[in-house]
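Hello again,

I reread your note about wanting to compare the complex against the isolated chains. To keep things tidy I'm splitting this into two emails, and this first one only covers the full assembly. Below are the input lines as submitted, including protein chains and any nucleic acid or small-molecule components. They are followed by the predicted structure of everything together. The single-chain runs will come separately.
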Amino acid sequence: MLAYYLDLALRSLRRSPVLTGLMVLAIGLGIGASMTMITVLHVMTDDPLPGRSARLYTPHLDPLPLDYKRHEGSPDPADDMTWPDAMALLKAHRAVRQAAMSGGSLLLRPARADLHPLYVSGRYATAEFFPMFGVPFERGGGWSAADDATGSSVVVLADALARKLFGTSDAVGQTVRLGEHDFRVIGVTADWAPKPLFYADQTGNQYSDADLFFLPLSVAMGQKFPVSGNQSAWGKGESPSLTSANMSWLQFWVQLDTPAQVAAYRQYLVDYSAQQKALGRFQRPPTNAKLYGLMGWLAHENLVPGDVDLQLWLALGFLFVCMLNIVALLLAKFLRRSGEISVRRALGARRRDIFVQFGIESALIGVAGGVLGLGIAQLGLWSIRQRPDDYARLAQMDLSMLLGTVVLAVLASMLAGLLPAWRACRVQPALQLKGG
Amino acid sequence: MQIRPILSALKKHRVATVLIVMEIALACAVLCNACFMIADRLSAMQIKSGVDEASLGFIALQGYDPKNSNDLDARVIAGLGAISGVESVHVINSVPFGMQAANVGITLDQAGKEFRGVPEIYLGSPGTPQALGLQLVAGHMPANEDYQPVQGYFPPSSNVLITRTLAKHLWPGESPLGKEFWSDKYQFRVIGVVAHLSVQQYDEEGERGAQWTVFVPALPGPNFSGTYLIRAKPEDLDRVMVEAKAAIATIAPDAVLDREDSTTVPVLRTRFFAADSAMAGMLVGVIAALLGVTALGIVGLASFWVAQRRRQIGIRRAIGATRGDILRYFQTENFLIVSFGIALGMLLAYVINAVLMKFYELPHLPLYYLPFGALALWGLGQLAVLGPALRASHVPPVVATRSV
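Full-complex prediction:
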C-alpha cells in the first residue's frame, strides 16, 4: 500500500512541476535559513569539555559591600575572585581538585633570529589546572604544587607556539624568554582549545582565543606580570593592588565527583562566607555564595550575543512563513483533486487511507525540501564563516545537525500537510461525483 | 468594481485566504522591523569622526623599555617623517576607531559628587589637533605652553578641547569656555570646542555618547609614547603605511610593532563596523527571501484560483465582461487580501518592536515605516497576481459552453 501511495504522490507531484517546485523551494529556503542559525547556536552552546564538564564547578563568592552600585553594561565584579579568597579556598583544599587562574599577555623574544618579538597570551594558573581540566600533553607535563610554592620558573607551551619557536625539535628542556624572564619548558600540550574558553573571564573573545602558554600564578605575581581581563575594585582607601581584598580578578575552578561532594562544597562556601562576614569583610548574606556547574556557568555568562539570538528568531519566523505558504498551496492542490478523492472513496478507500496518501505526498515534498535546505544551509554557514565575529569560524555542520536538517524539513512539511490532508479526507464523495 | 461579490467568493476559500493574510501580516511586520534595524545600523555607521580620516594612519609600538621612550619617540618621528609623502608624525594615544586608550568618569566639582558620565580622552603632542584636522567652533587651539608632561594618566591640570556634544551635555545653554571639570585628582579646563571628535570604541549600549570626547594637550614621556599619528595625502596614505611598517624594524629594532592596530584610519573604520555591515547585509537577505516567498505564495494560490474558476470566468465573459473586468477582479481580490494582511501586520509590527525594544535595546519603531511597508506589500501583491490574472483574462468565453 505504501509503495502505491508513494507512486501516486510522485505522479501527482510530477503533474504540476511548477507548484511542486515552488513548495520545495519554500521549504528549502525556510529550512536552510533555520538550520544555519540553529547550527551556529549549537556550536556556540556546545559542551567545551565533553565527558568532563559535569564534574567541573566554579565557586562564586559575594564580597561586594552592600552599597556597591553596578553601572549598567559593566561586568559584575563578583564574577571573579579576590586574591585572599582564592588563596583561602586553594589552601582549604576541600574539592577533589582546585585551581586559581588568570589570563595574561607577555612579550616573547624568540631566540631564533628570523622571528620578530611578539606578544602572546596565556594563563597564569596553579598546578592542578592540568589534571583537573584533563589537558592532554604531547611531551612532558604540568608542574607540581611544590613548583607553585617555590615559584619555579617553568612554563608549559601550547603545541602551536612550541612548533613556531622550536620547529620539529623537542621543546621540553629549552628556555623561553617571556616578559624579560627566562622560563624552562617542562611540557607541550597536544591540540587543546576549549570553545568557548569557559575558564577565561568575559572580557576576551572566548570563541577565538586560546592559551599559548601556562605558567605558575606565583611566578606571575612575583614578577609582577601584567594581568589581562577584568579587574574590579570597590570601596574607598588606598589604590588597590592585585593582592587587595577589595579587588577581584581571578578565576577559580574545582572538580567535584559526587553529588555529596557538591553539596558539601556548597556548604563550605556558605560557611566560609559566614566566617568572612563575622570577620567584617563580607557584608552580604552568606547564602549569596553559589556554586555553578560548567554548563550552568556558561548560561550565567550568557555568551551568545544578541545578534545571534535575533537571527535565529528571524530564521524561525521565516520558516513559519514558508510553512504557511505551503499549507495554502497544498490546500489548493489537494482540494483540486476532490474528484479523484471521491472516486477513491466511492471505491472503498477509508478516510484514513486518503489521509495517509496525502500525508506521504507532503512528506515527499519535505524530503526534497530538506535536501535543498541542506545545500542552502551549507551556503549560509559558508557566508557566516566569512563574517568578522569571533564565533564565525566555528560555524560547521556536524552529523547530528545534518540529520536534524532532514528531520526538521520532513516534520515541517508534514505539519504543513496536516490541515490540507485532513480537509481532503473530509470531502463528501457523493456531492463531488454528482458535480463532476 | 463591486467588492461584495469578491468578498463572498473569498468566503468560500476561507482557510486559504486566512493563510495568505497571515503570511502577508508576518511579512509586513518583519519588513518594517528589519528595515528599521538596517536603518539603525547604517546610521550608527555614519558617525562623524571629526578628523581627516582619508589622510591619517596610526602606528603602535610595544615592548620597549619605558625609560627609553623619549629616545624612541625622537627616532620614530624622524625616521617616519623621512618617508616620502609623509606630511607629519605626532605622538597621540589613539585615533577614532582605534584601540581604546583612556576613558574616565568625570565630575563637575572637585569633591567628585556631580558625576557626569564617562568620556574618552585623546592625548596628543604639540600640533596634533591641526594634524587630525579638528574643526574649532569656539575658543582657541592649545598653545605651546598648554602642552604639559603626563603624570600618571594625564597632566595634573590641563587646558583641553571638548566636543560640542559634550559641552552641551555638561553645561546646557551655557558657554563651556573657561569651565572646569575633574576626574579624581586631575583637573581639566575648557579652552576650545570642536565640531566633532568621535570616541575610539563606539558602543551603542551603556552610558557613553559617541561624541563624548576630550582632547588633552600633552608632552610625550614615559607614560605617553610609542603610538603615532601619521598624516599623508590620501593618495599616498596606503603606500606610506606599508613603508612605515617596514621601516619600524630598522628605526626601532627594540620595539614590537602592533600589527593589528597599525593601519590607516579608513581601514580601522571599516573593521570597526564590519559586524554591523554584515548584520545589515543579512537583514537585506532576510527581507528579500521573505518577500520572494510571499510573492511565490500569492502566485501559487492565484494560479490555482484562476484554474478553478475557468468556467465561471468563461460565463462572465460570455455575458459581457471585458478582459479588463476579469483582470481587475483578480487585482481587486489581491488588493483586499493584502490589505487585510497589512492591517494585521501593523499590529504585529508593533508587537515585534516591543519585544525587540525589551530584549535588544532597540528604539521605538517610527510610524512612517508602516505606510512604506504597506506600499511595498501592495506593490508586491499586484505584481505577483498580474501573471495569473492576465491568464484569467485570456480565458475565452467559449469555455462557458463546455462541460468541465
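For quick reference: Chain B touches chain A through 47 residues (CB under 8 Å).

B.
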